[in-house]
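Hi C.,

You asked whether I'd gotten around to modeling the 281-residue construct. I have! Everything is below, sequence then structure, no commentary in between.
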Amino acid sequence: MELSKLKNILEAILLGADRTLTVIQLEGLFELDEERPTRDEIRKALHEMAEDYETRGYELKQVASGFRLQVRQEYATWIGRLWEEKPARYTRALLETLALIAYRQPITRGEIEEVRGVSVSSNIIKTLLERDWIKVLGHKDVPGKPSLYGTTKEFLDYFNLKSLDQLPTLAEIKDLDSIHPELALDENADKGEAGPADEDSASEDSEGDDTVAEQQNSAAEQSDSDDVNVVAANEDSIEPAADENDEDVVEQVVNEVHEIEEEVEAAADEVQQSEKQVSSV
């Protein structure tokens, strides 16, 4: 099969698909054809397609579970104007929990609570499980046999990642304040200007922000040797930063994950709209 024809077929398949597709899945779609492309030919076609799209408004992206076509992030502002609804926003408590699981998996609910200094709501774990962002990897061999949680391929897909290696390293996160000093100023302003209304809101929401003192006390009691090995998709791993305080890591990881979540949410909406437009054509 000619490479140009194969590229057009693959483009049509990826535009029409409502999910990511692996090379093996793409190869299976040619089983009934007389001219069946090989797996290497499909990979070569995908590589050239990615280069062809460099000057277009969409791109061919490889994530943990395969390939997909999506609108480029820089055009999110205009695509976002197609919808009046705002993407769902997640609580700080949920993002802190997700960040701890991503960076310190496998980890138990009790260990998460020990780092955060407050109890983890059952609704948070339920939400993460329902979204297929986390899964139970096993049970820790201690009294009560608590579940050990880790992230999934769906988590990587949602945040536009191929593997956990693409998560920002803890050292990079620690450098955010020096790169964007306004972030630290905003954070200090938020902490210093909390009024009575904020205190009332925090008392009503058990999943609200933890105080710095609570995080520091909890981090001091957290042993560096407690389950810091990361179980990554495709057996990838991330080394924890042993010389950093847990509360600083959690604070900055959450900020980074929150930004990524907003960007990917917008990009996902763009992809859905693009697929609708293509289908209508």
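If it helps when you're writing up: The two ends are 27 Å apart (CA to CA).

Thanks,
B.
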